[in-house]
Amino acid sequence: MNATFWLETLNLWILLALLLLGYGVGRWQERRHYRDIRVREQALKQVLALSTRYVPEGVTATGAQLVSGSVVISSDYFKTFVAGFRAFFGGRFRGYETLLERARREALLRLKQQARDSGSSLVIGVRFESTTIAGSSTPSVEIMAFGTALHTGS
Question: What is the pLDDT of residues 119-130, one digit of tens each?
């Protein structure tokens, strides 16, 4: 066996090791983010966010203000690599689905935090906007949540 064969084999093993490292770090980061999201969702559960456009019956609003929360989240290289195969064979992009779910939940948490900081516990008319960020080597998405925080009489 010649040196070229061993060099190509070494390069293949390095690629596989880097992919596995990327997978492990990506999963760790994703789990950590989900854990943080769950803790913050529990802390902000008293702030209601509704998609309805109208003030709920029985609620007296004394003021209103626009609140928003936005986040940009990027996929890791391993998910991008796997998505290339998925695009070839077809099927669901589960890695991207979790990316969008995390981004949506994070944007909503930031909206609720802004509402609570302004003294509100009810947000109506909650809407989401999303966009992909081009020019990156890995897929990135921005999600923005916005709505009207109501100041209710005490």
Answer: 999 999 999 999
